[in-house]
Predict the 3D structure of the following.
Amino acid sequence: MNWRKLSIGFLLLSASLILHGQYSASFGIKAGISLANQSYRITSIDYELETNPVPGPVVALFAETFKGKSFSFQFDVAYASKGHCTSTESVTVNHLDNDRITVNEGDAAKSRFHYLSLVPLARYRIDLERLTPYFLLGPRVDFLLNYGTESNYPLESQNHTLLGLTAGAGVELHVGNLGLFAELQYLPDLSPVSNKEPLLINNNMLSLSFGIRFSVSE
């Protein structure tokens, strides 16, 4: 698959730069918890279903290189669980009665979508004595790994590759060649989970993670 070739190519490039000592570089791991939700909109009547967010795990491996005075390039390979919770079982629209909407509710049901993400990021940092606040921004490509739902009406059609944005901020504490950090990210999607008429579904997610960074060259 293309995402495998891309990730392998990036890791080989990073390893080559690190071994030859041409650039300051670091790598590490981060993990935490996310709060994800999905918007379900019936486009024919411009009606949005009520959904509630669901928590889930996030974990990522990352490498940083091309480190300048304030900017650097970072690449994340991440796993995240997204989805929503709703008690809506069905929606009926009576077009003969001025598009009157009848919502039938049942037990709360969760739906989860598991993604592998490739995330190239621009990283801007403010180097202080021991602490480094930083900001992240870049595009994101999500690849669907698995989908499961407790609903009696599973989603039959969905997009397996999604485009999105990643924006984040964090603060890092330096201990020798190690960095310990906390990071908050907002991850909206630019392409829909499903756009099969008349239903339009979009992901959005907020995550908090903690991680460790290993500096391998200066």
